[in-house]
Amino acid sequence: MLPDNYIVMGRFKLFNILLPILFMLNAVNSEEKSEVEIFETAANGNKLTAVKTSAQEESSITITLFPDEKFQTITGFGGSFTEASASLLNKLSKENRNKILEAYFGDTGARYSLTRTHINSCDFSLSNYSYASVEGDKELKNFSIHEDKDDIIPMIKDAMTFSKEGFKIVSSPWTAPPWMKDNNKWVGGKLFPEYYDTWALFFSKYIDAYKAEGIDIWGLTVENEPLGNGNNWESMHFTAEEMTLFVQKHLGPKLEADGKSNVKILGYDQNREHLKDWVDVMYKDEATSKYFAGTAIHWYASTFEVFPDALQYAHNKSPGKYLIQSEACIDAEVPKWQDDVWYWSKEATDWGWDWAPEQDKPLHPKYVPVYRYARDIIGCLNNYVDGWIDWNMVLDKQGGPNWFKNWCVAPVIVDPEKDEVYFTPLYYTLAHFSKFIRPGAVRVGFNNPDKELLVTACQNPDNSFAVVVFNPTDNDKQITLSQNNKKVHFKISSKAIQTIVLKK
Q1: N or C terminus of the chain: which is more exposed, having fewer CB within 10 Å?
Q2: H-type helices in 106-170, by residue range?
Q3: SS3 label, residue 415
Q4: Sign of CA dihedral 102, 382, 322, 198
Q5: What tens digit of pLDDT does each residue of 158-211 get?
Q6: pLDDT digits (tens, 9 = 90+) for 57-99
């Protein structure tokens, strides 16, 4: 029999040998676990909450990724810098201002990568204004962006300090100054042909003025809602032929001559229901399409219809061009303050129902705000849209400020008098896409056998996969996500959105 001290020493040696092995095994297991991250936002109260994988169940729904099936490259996701949002940030404490900007642009937040702002005033401005206020100033010698220097520009520059990877800006005019239009009004009317060159110069000066402030403009839309908005707030009308002519003969050549060919020109910029008609004109031939980098669209034609045929048609008409959703919002009379339940219920008031002709009212039933965002973004991505931009980033408890008083909802609502901030479920819904699907990602194919689930999948530049699953049903569902013989098992809650990140 061996002496006790020999046995103890032998055990000690064995322990010293096994300890590194156990440590290595634990490290491998930890690494395997870290290869998958799952985040959920749900009616149950989860808000981008990390959830765990689970054991496989017989009832599991298998979603299979096909990485070799590649579609469009993603430009980005984000929201809009408006005078309304910027003026509200000015009224908050520095702490809450920074909290909001970090939430939208910081690494810990939604990481917005594609944004929009307005040129001249819009409905979500505090008043009507133009950068060219001097009537008859065809050479725009008095051009000035001073109206933006108190609010919009500081908001953009502050956002830039929070964004490590940066973000793109698309700028859109609602109207030229009234003196350039045939009705001499802020609302409606058309641009006089004699001012086409002046209006093209206006865009060039705007780009230069923002550049001088340290802000690069990535893209322009020619006109916000060229078909009009019911003559309610700032607007200017173009037909598809008129806009195409303006871009082909005036705006495109002017930017080219001024060394600004890198700035993307996006046509249309209104609802998808007329998209086919517009791209037929814009992309008629090489001459008409030369200066158009792509098309911008809105979602207001319906509260549930994505118009997949129109989106696919636009993509197929010119596959190499951008297709960007440039504006979306919930048309509620008054947003619900600190009431998450409302955003998961059919209580939003769609103004389209009030305004639409009788034959169009079936396109505008009551809807769940969260569902509308999730359905539309997934539907857009699965039909070749490469960028998706929300409207106002910040609004007040009324759904303004707004000179026209057409209130709506933003992902972040604030009470400037009490210096309070409310991140609605819409914020977390958008973040499921913007935070995890990065610019340069490529949408990939998948098979989803469950028609109740909505799914989209992208492969990021770092080769990770971001898969977004939306479950609008009243039942939890067990899911198996399969990719190249790797399988992940998890549960998605009822009335929930999940993003599953499969790391490299």
Answers
A1: N
A2: 152-162
A3: strand
A4: negative
A5: 999 999 999 999 999 999 999 999 999 999 999 999 999 999 999 999 999 999
A6: 878 999 999 999 999 999 999 999 999 999 999 999 999 999 9
Instruction: Write the DSSP symbol of residue 48.
Output: S
What is the gyration radius of the CA atoms in the chain, in angstroms? 26
H or E stretch covering 67: strand 61-73
pLDDT tens, position by position, 235-256: 999 999 999 999 999 999 999 9
Q: What are the start-end ranges of the H helices in 174-321?
A: 196-212, 240-246, 252-257, 275-282, 286-289, 308-317
Span 123-136, mean pLDDT? 97
Short-list 329, 245, 332, 328, CA closest to 291: 245
Token pair belonging to 115: 């944004």
Share of the chain above pLDDT 70, in %: 93
Question: Would strands 412-415 and 420-423 be described as parallel, antiparallel, or unpaired?
Answer: antiparallel
One-character DSSP codes across 318-349: STTSEEEEEE--B--SSPPTT-HHHHTSS---
pLDDT digit string, tens, across residues 292-301: 999 999 999 9
Task: Name the phi and psi angles at 245, rounded to 5.
Answer: -60, -45
pLDDT confidence band for 14 (50 / 70 / 90): very low
Beta bridge partners of 455: 469
Domains and CATH numbers, the chain: 36-70+444-502 (2.60.40.1180), 75-436 (3.20.20.80)
Decide: 148 and 217 in contact? Cβ < 8 Å: no
Strands 477-483 and 61-73: parallel
pLDDT of amino acid 23: 39
Provide the residue type at 201 as one letter. L
Is beta strand 322-327 parallel, antiparallel or unpaired with respect to 294-298?
A: parallel
